[in-house]
Amino acid sequence: MEKRQIETLVGFFVLLGALAIVFLSLKAANLASFSFDSTYPVTARFDNVGGLKIRAPVKSAGVTVGRIASILFDDKAFQGVVTMQIDRRYQFPDDTSAKILTAGLLGDQYIGLEPGADDKNLKAGDSIKITQSAVVLENLIGQMLYSKAAEGRPKDSPK
Amino acid sequence: MNPPALLAALGAAALRILQSLGHASAFFSVLVRRLPAAFRRFDLSIVQIHAIGNLSLVIIITSGAAVGGVLALQSYYSLNRYGAAESVGLLVALALLRELGPVLTALLFAGRAGTSLTAEIGLMKAGEQLAAMEMMAVDPLSRVLAPRFLAGIISMPLLSAIFSAVGIGAAYVVAVKMIGIDSAAFWSQMQDGVDVFDDIGNGIIKTIVFGVSTTFVALYTGYESEATPEGVAQGTTRTVVISSVAVLILDFLLTSLMFSTP
User: Predicted ipTM?
Assistant: First the structure.
């Protein structure tokens, strides 16, 4: 085969491979929604982070506005410190609250942001004051058993 | 056989394995040092990319489509039970990008391209072409082996990317066109769960490692095969066996390094 022909065929092969990588990054993965350095970090402290994982979404009103960058343990306050990277397009009031929620009954956990009413906005490095920990299923069942036991007690019995 | 002789045979076998491993490592370092020479004569590598890459396209595309389609069909049965039929796309994409794409491409590559490399080098050696080159002060390692090595390393990631892309396309056809899963849910679930660096990037690192190992095994067994018809035949068999086992072991190691942490 002629050399030029082989080079053209190899060029076609390389192009096909490059197109496949572009297709995978844009269509199968999240590169299109991925942008460099357009986020700001915000931290929040939780008594219990439950099953929260790094890279889990941060949502507000159901819309993904950021991702969780790191989860650390503070051994002074014995709390979990969650750092999230929030998209720079979205600004939240200073008194925004953060909750750890679960997608569906058994789904992955994410952080839900509930905007407050303050005039000032959260800046890079700020921390969210009002937080609500993850719901731990065991505690919930324990509470339910206790309340059921209390209901079942005869009316006149001493408390 | 009496015990001392058995012990001696065992020891000899162990020493032989160690010796061939050391020999292969030395050959690997020599071959890596010849890679700059392959870059200088890149036209030689282009011919090899054509032989290794272009001519493997048909088998890679057919296998990719078959694997993607079957994965989509099979995962649909189980996922549909739990009302998570939309996750078919995510499951197929993660399976292809992380494991099946790199591993199956490497296995097919060993069968399709590795054997031909081994046979070619083995016959060149049997026909004393390599010795003739050396007589003419042409280094057969940098003239014959290094361009093939480079071509293998370049071709593997591209072939694997094509494999995964075709597989996802086939899964789309099966899941959306045949089964009737919502197209937007198919893609959005996939995009939600697949990460560019964690999944695609690590998959590409895997394919480069497999490209190096498979091509190296093919070249080494060809170069070291006995200069007889039986020797070349044994060499091609060894290429498939050794490179397949190497790919599977390396894949386990790489997966446990890359994907074991949540």
Answer: 0.85
